[in-house]
Every structure is written in structure tokens, then in C-alpha cells.
Automatic annotation (TrEMBL):
It holds the Pfam family PK_Tyr_Ser-Thr. Belongs to the protein kinase superfamily. PAN3 family. The gene is PAN3. It comes from Daedalea quercina L-15889. This is PAN2-PAN3 deadenylation complex subunit PAN3. The lineage of its organism: Eukaryota, Fungi, Dikarya, Basidiomycota, Agaricomycotina. GO terms for cellular component: P-body; PAN complex.
Amino acid sequence: MAQGDMAFFSRPSSAAVKIVAPSTQEPSSPRQSAKKDSTQRQCRNILIYGHCKFQDKGCIYYHPPAREESSPVPPDSPVPSAALPAQAVNAPVFVPKTISTESPVPAYAGQSRQSISPPSSGVPSDHQSVQSDYQEQEDIYDPFAYNGANDDTFSDGPHSMVNPYVNGADPAMMGYDGADPLYSAQFTFARQPLNYHLYTQSRPESLAHRYFISDNIREELQRRSESLYSSPAHGLSLPEELQGYHSLLPLEPTAGERRKFGNWYSTMYRATNSTDGLAYALRRVENFRLMQQAAFSGIEAWSRIRHPNIISVREAFTTRAFGDNSLVVVYDYHPNARTLYEAHVKPKAPQYQNGRLMTQSPRVPESTIWSYVIQIARAIKAVHDAGMAMRVIDATKVLVTGQNRVRISSCGVVDVLTYEARPEVALLQQEDLMMFGKLVFALCTNNLAAMNNFAKAVESVGRHYSAELKAVSLFLVSKPAPNKTIGHLFEMFGGRMLAEMDEMQNSVDRLESELMSELENARLVRLLCKFGFINERPEFSREPRWSETGDRYIIKLFRDYVFHQVDEHGNPVVNLSHVLTCLNRLDAGSEERIMLVSRDEQSCLVVSYKEVKSCIDSAFSELSRR
Ligand SMILES: Nc1ncnc2c1ncn2[C@@H]1O[C@H](COP(=O)(O)OP(=O)(O)OP(=O)(O)O)[C@@H](O)[C@H]1O
């Protein structure tokens, strides 16, 4: 809206409607005033929302007898469906000096619109003229407009599409307390350009939690975020910087008992790359002297492999930054990842069960093992098809990076470490299958050393799991043979493969629906940030535009309307649906009007969300220009 339109608000006498209290005694405080004259004063909930949910629960104000549900406002009443009559709040009719009392019908309004246009009597008509001004400017834009020239259903003109948000098309979804009959009448409106074209329906308070993603996903993502942004380690004598990586943080203990990676000790670190600012996982192999640059050729091949079940290899280098000759291989970092060993094999701390301290080692469900087997098999197939071998497949080198989601880590390291030996790839691929089989036995028996007693391991798998799973594990640990290939393994999966694909698609659906619940929140956060920038700025405290007679005063009152409402007992109303409904209508620039009441309850303003929006926009752009 053009700045000039706001002149309406800058005339103090025309902006405020003085509320004349019916009693001669002036209320000394808002709370006190709420208790006085309660038998004569009509309940404001009825006026604003069309109903009062406290009517039968002790609300002390006057509630007119209920009318027909579909028309909360009596036909003979001067109160329009979307506006508030001054009489209703015991105030004289206020007519701004410069604006006619006639109710100009906006140029676009057809029959159906007229029926919901505010009637001329009892309503300040100034907003209607503002409304038509808006219309002239905004007819240009209508992202939802349907040019239905040949379609009777849509022959109502370009603005006839229902905005679920503004119209309250589904009253049960719209109101402050669920239903909102005051605003349920059908009317059309001028659309303003929106940040997003789709708007959520507001929900009853009882379903407000569905505005956000579910708790378990949120908690998981928060844990990942914490792991991503936890501060780097101090006092560990780690290098400040190596080859463009800084802020090193060890991902495992660097002292005490340590296992070797082949013949070498190795440590995983999280580090930040200075070029892109992202976190990466660095595997450092200690005291390794690289004899020839060609040993990195394997890393180059690995860096070309991109697979959802393989942790991507980025680069490798040698460094003396740790005070020794170290080899460092850089991988994508998956925050909060755990190894299969940590997730399933590592003995859990003993817990009390039925009064006795028991060591827990819950068996991995068969469906989970199948999911792991299929994912790992797909990763191996991609690598074997590329003429390479995994070289390391064990419970400490397969990471769980989400719900049943696994990725093979540490690829490429062994290729560098054993470059001199250069064994035949076919042989290495057979070794991969053997390592894979051992991993399946380890998972089925919760024991890394299960293969040390092969007969017992086979018996255990047969007892606890299906014959198909047993057959797959036996195939993997069988002697090398021409038909023992990863491709042949897929033939053994049969229907399990289809079940896994179904599960994958279900999981995508679940995530998409979780994402939907967050869709509007970023937009609302930006709107709230605008409020934060604008409201309560000390430098405005002496500016006339922000005083009770200035045009910016409306923003303060709107903020009170959204966040600081009190019920008839003076208790704060904490209602998320109300806040979201108001903010969304504000963002949509709805024509719907609300009554803003000053803090001393002595005056009120009837304004549309569109006008508040315009006021906020101009205040914000002024702030940004300063
Ligand atoms: N790419 C990665 N992203 C995130 N975390 C990782 C990544 N790679 C490894 N980790 C984590 O680093 C930790 C150490 O990994 P590592 O492969 O050394 O496992 P380990 O169980 O310590 O095995 P080893 O005994 O061979 O050292 C594990 O907790 C693992 O989850």
C-alpha cells in the first residue's frame, strides 16, 4: 500500500473511537473495569469472536441469546459480519471528518460480495474507501486467479477463489477457539503478493502440536545439530590447522586402550573446512610414511563413488602437523553416527529387571538385519561393479546414520596403506563377501568373535532367525567360487528386496509429511523477527508517530491483540492457534477487521489486517533504510 493511504492513521481524531463507559465511574484499571457493569456490558468475546467459550463457565458479561448457528449476527443487526459497531461497545458512532458515511461498494464487488460488505450504518466506512483504494492497486496481482472464461464454476471473476485462510472456509479450523462463525461468511478479497502461495489452515488448539515436526524426529535432528556444532577440543595439543581444516575434535578416545587399524593406530576427528565452512570426518593414520604419490590413485577412484550407503571420500593427504608422519583421509561427516558395533554388539550397561541386575543384549530384529544386509549389499555391488573392492567391512566400520540407515565408512584407507602389495581385485571382492558374512553372523549373535565357534554361530542363527537369513549368511562365508558374486546374492533376497523398497518409500512419505508441518514456520519466524525489530525501540519512545496519536501506534496495539489478550478474569490468554491465525492473516493482508483496544481500554481502533500489514511494512522499511 502506498504511504499516502496511511494518512488515515495519522489523524488522531479519526483513528480512535472513544469508548464511553456506561457507568459514570471511570474504571481505574483494566482489570477492575472488566468487573464493573458486567450486567450491562456485552461480552467482548461475543463481539470479536461471535461466541464466548466462558459463557456457561461464569463469564460475568452480558451474552445475547443465541441465534441460528449459521448466522451469528442477526439480520436486523447493524453489525456486519466482519466489522464491529461502535454502539456495541457503548460508544457513539464515530465518523471521520473527511470520509463519507456512505458505504462505497468496491469496484470489484459483485452480488455475493455485497451481501458481506459492511453495511453503511453503524460502521466507520473509512476502511471501505481504503479497501477500494487497495483494490485498484492490487488487482494486478492474483497468484490464485483462475481465468475461467469457459467454465461456469469459476465464472465469478478473477478473485472468486477461496482463500482458506482469510475466508474461514472451514470454520472449525479457523477460529480462536476452533469455530469462528463471525468470519465464516463467504466473501472475496484482494490478494496481496505473499511470501508463500500456500497457507496452512489454522488448527484447533488441541492439534496445535501438529504445526511442528514430531518430537522424535526433532530430538534426533537436534542431537545431530549439537554434534555438528559442539565446540572443538581444548588442551589436547591438536594442530590449529592442517591442509585447510581447523577446529579439530576427536570422535573417539585418544588415550587408554586402543585398537589398531591393520598395523597402525588411527583416530577419527571432526574438523571444519575453511573453504566451505562444512564439517568433515578426518581419519588420521598415525606414523605412516607414504612412499609414493601413486598410492593416492585409489583415493581418486573412491572420490568418484557416490552411493547412499557409502560415506563419500573427499580427499587424502599426508601431514606432519600432529608431530609425526600421518596419513589423513577426509570423508563426509554424519553427525551423531554410531558404528554397528556401538549400536548392536557392544554390551550395554547392566540394568535392574525384576529386582535383579541384568546385562542386556537385545537381539537385533530380523527385519532390521535384512534392511542392513540389503543396504550393505547394494553398496558392495556399486563398488564391485566399478571394478573395485571395499577392503573393510566390519561392525566398527559400518555406521548407522539414521533410523536403520547404514553407510560403509573408511573406504580407500586400506588401498593407500597396502598400495605396495596390489592384490588381484577378484580376490579382494571374494574377501569382501567373506567379511560381509562375518558381519551378518556378528549381528545375529551379538558377538564380534562369533566365527571363532562356527558351528555354534550357525546353530544360533538357525534358532533365532529365518531359514532365508541363515542361507544368505552361509552363502557369504562359503568358499570362493565362480558363482559366488554380489549379483548372485541379490537373487537370494527375493521378496525381502521389495519389502525394503516399500519401507524406503514409506519413510520418504513420513519425512515429507513431517516437512509439511514445518512449511509455514520459517515464514512466521521472519514475521516475528520483523515485530522484534520494530517493537519497543527506545529511540522511538519520543517520536510522535509511535505515540498514542501516531500511525505506528497501531503496531503496538496489534502486538497486544496477538500476544497480550486477557480473559474475562484478567488472566493471560495463551493460545497458539490465535497467534498463528492472526500472524497468517496479517501476512496474507486479509481485509478482515479486528478491534484493537488501547491498554487503558478507553479507546479502540477498528482496522483490517491489511492496514496493519501495511503499517508494519512501512515501519520496517523505514528501519532498514536508516
Ligand atoms: N564419517 C563419519 N561421520 C561421523 N562420525 C564418524 C564418521 N566416521 C567415523 N565416525 C565416528 O567416529 C568414531 C570412531 O570411528 P572408528 O571407525 O575409529 O570406529 P572404532 O569403533 O573406534 O573403530 P576402531 O576400533 O577401528 O578405531 C565412531 O563413533 C564413529 O561413529
